[in-house]
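Single Protein Entry

Contents — chain, fold
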Amino acid sequence: MIEKPQPQGQRRSSGLATALAVFVAGLVVGLGMAANLGGQFAAGLIILAVLCFVLSLLSRTAENTRKRVTAGEASYRAFFDHAVEGIFRTTAEGHYLAVNQALCDIYGYATPQALMTGLTDIGIQLYVEPRRRNEFRSQMQAHDIVTNFVSEIYHRSGRRIWISENARAVRDWSGALLCYEGTVEDVTEKFEQERALRGALRQAEIANKMKAAFLAAMSHELKTPLNAVLGFSEIIRDEVLGPVGHDGYRDYAGDIHKSGTRLLAIINDVLDVSRLEGGLLTIDARAENVLDIAEAAYKQARIVTHDPRRIELDVPADMPSLQVDPRRLSQALGNLMSNALKFTPPPGKVRFVARLTPDGGVLLKVEDSGIGMAEETVAAALEPFRQLDGSLARRFEGAGLGLSIAKALAELHGGSLTVQSAVGEGTTVTIALPPASVGARIGSAKVA
């Protein structure tokens, strides 16, 4: 650091003082020697010289300290006056001791003096809710610090704004409170944006529940005509009332029945997704045999896929019953089996396996030797309405809801669903149920 040169007058005065000091010292020494005062006089002179040197050092140190303090105060004052955030010092009772121009701009005052004159009681005049000042003081008394203290206040113009305060208690050496000092930020725009976002989210939640309730109410309206289509087409297809007279009509009736079944399955899936999203679907748990649940799932998968292949059901003979909703669990397993049949070309095989876990839970697995999928596409497959092949000419049909519904139903039972798959190596989907879902042991057989 380059030292600032002293003014010419100061250098001349310093030189004169040094010369005078040397002259006086020489004079004293000369007089002492002329008077023949001896060694005691010389020792006294040395002590005096040391004391003078020490006093000179202390004087210079004091002067340097004064300069640093003066410079520091000037620097702090410049920072205080030109800071972007509002800065304040107040008494605990709510009177301003010091404010900067930024705080005046936030509150709508022209100068610090105008603010301190206009706001003489912070609790009553500033806060929209007067108790906020008491809450501020309570936090200070408890922690000596307040952070992100958001309040609504009155701007000088009369409008209301939102501010965020960060402050600390200033105490003396004995611990007595001197003042509060801190910063103020105008967060009106941020607060209004967050409030608008929360309002939009609430409206979205309400709209979502209304949508789910509407779709649930439409279930009867949608299923009634479909049931008629399915019933009458089945009567025609099976010639219950007698021959139809032409084989083509019977084939058409079969196509109508098949398409109606597929449409009903899609409608049921969409309705279930809506109920799940709206929290309207609940579990009616009761004790049920695992094998019975698996067989119901297998029948459902055959109806949806029209695939005649058998699914191997591997259930230990001593497998305990499950405390679950059998209809919903068989629906989840049926979706997994349908996917397994759909994505496993003949002569590939599909297998269901049930096993107990060491902690007393149960694993229900649907394994296939089908086309599989890449690891990075597993997460996408678990999303509702997500088709890995989104083209209209895709090879495999469906709404893409089965896997996501199965996952949601497993979670409603307190369990989880995981997928392990590799391209060309098949897929294993596992539903893990907690020990609370496992009941008493009842006999069941292994069926192939």
